[in-house]
Amino acid sequence: MNNMFCFQCQETSRNQGCTVMGVCGKNDEVSNLQDVLIFVVKGVALYSNKLRQNNKIYENVNEYLYRALFSTITNANFDGEEIKEYIYEGIKLRKFLAKELENTKILIDSKFEGSRLATFEFDESCDLVDLAHEIGVLRTENEDIRSLREIILYGLKGLSAYGFHALNLKFESNEIFDFFEKALIATEDNDLSAEKLTNLVFETGKFGVDVMALLDRANNSAFGTPEMTKVNIGVGKNPGILISGHDLKDIKELLEQTEGTGIDVYTHSEMLPAHYYPELKKYKHLVGNYGNAWYHQTTEFETFNGPVVFTTNCLVPPKKNATYNDRIFTLNATGLPGWKKLKTDENGKIDFSEVIELAKKCKSPTEIESGTITGGFAHGQVFALADKIVEAVKSGAIKKFIVMSGCDARQTTRKYYAEFAKKLPKDVVILTSGCAKFRYNKLNLGDIDGIPRVLDAGQCNDSYSWAVVALKLKEIFNANDINDLPIEFNIAWYEQKAVIVLLALLYLGIKNIHIGPTLPAFISKNVASLLNEQFGLTGITTVDNDLQIFFS
Ligand code: SF4
Ligand code: SF3
């Protein structure tokens, strides 16, 4: 029997599955505990959904469901003790909900009543390997059913992440929660056929669109409409705090608490787009972005010299000789043994005083690059430039757009994306979002009539912007089908947020998407054929060959 089994990300061992230890650094104990947690989360969803049907909604349960599932996303949480706390918290919540249900005399689904999902208990004496085998990925023997169940689950993980950020800004949707719970329960329903599960995969994409739209509204109302912005990538003389991850409410609080302290704030990786929002860029001490995509952190945190705050993934377990461990703080669903966890109070406020005091004692960051990069092309800014863009398309100055949103990661095969960007015909504009952009956003690819050739909409969830832009272009050009537009899709994926983005694009009817650098291990051969036949979804090949396919 395997020590563990996980195949949810692009770096999974041999593109089959991590069975001894995660390539990401997740050990077998944490992996198995996460399997248990996912099972517990489904049990909570079972009761919560029944009560929801009867208009009984519990805010703390909603928050738990998102936060707990989010903690199982790749590179979010490596702390087994914290995962156990989530498990115990879930079992307590499930019991509470069961009592509530008893009081209301509502019956739970007879199919699940008395089942393990409804009654499961956990304690330290449980054999984790046995347990994970019974309730983890490999519980499903049929590989197509397994594939469909896991696609849904990973889509829901991505949905939970985006839903969590929106919730942090007090934006929520009962309809999304309702689907989220129902789909979680469905992944345990042995009566669902492959056809029904396939439909659920596409429905997950619909709610992917909804959750990204919700988060877009939340971010825009809290921080203004992203606008074209030049971001400094050099450093100043003051000590700094580096903030990473995706949660914009967290950076806003950090900026408020550091104002006037003499500390500068820098963004890392997916926090770069914070600079594009008026209500965040107005802080003079938000001085720049330090470094590149998440996996460079093992060297970049060394030279940053000051404290680092993680609001979400991607965390990388430090090397043995790392000197920065006592400078790292985590928040929300993230955790790593030995790194300090910052707590939020009952009003959701974070106390950054410890981070600020530490920063004051640290050296200022060591410069690793200089200059600026430009971004801020979410749908609002693109619409403001619409006339110029449409004119460039009509005159033939812009021949095509290529959406290259998604994730970056370590594998050397990802050099493909930098090479692909460099070799693109000069009349092609890259539309990007997510950390994938770090492969080509510093290549100085120039502009077309003042329109930069790399338009960065923001974080991975801002891929939604490209769907909105595509729909707008369809209207402007009076096209019958979104696929008739001069837009191609070459998406780089890594973790499960990319899965919900992909499902959302499929739901919107976008065809012929290329994904890479490899096809997901969790997509079985039959499911891959179905996606290929129905949507033209395919993998990447070589740069030259793909350029031929896209531009000949
Ligand atoms: Fe392996 Fe990815 Fe799972 Fe980590 S998250 S254990 S690398 S499949
Ligand atoms: Fe990156 Fe982790 Fe996916 Fe939000 S930070 S895109 S990989």
Automatic annotation (TrEMBL):
Annotated residues for binding of hybrid [4Fe-2O-2S] cluster: H246, E270, C314, C407, C435, C460, E495, K497
Record GO biological process: response to hydrogen peroxide
UniProt: [4Fe-4S] cluster binding residues: C6, C9, C18, C24
Main localization, broad class: cytoplasm
Alphabetical list of Gene3D superfamilies matching this protein: 1.20.1270.20, 3.40.50.2030
Localization: Cytoplasm
Superkingdom in the source lineage: Bacteria
Keywords: 4Fe-4S, Cytoplasm, Iron, Iron-sulfur, Metal-binding, Oxidoreductase
Similarity section: Belongs to the HCP family.
Alphabetized HAMAP family for the sequence: Hydroxylam_reduct
Function: Catalyzes the reduction of hydroxylamine to form NH(3) and H(2)O.
Protein name per its UniProtKB record: Hydroxylamine reductase
Protein source organism: Leptotrichia rugosa
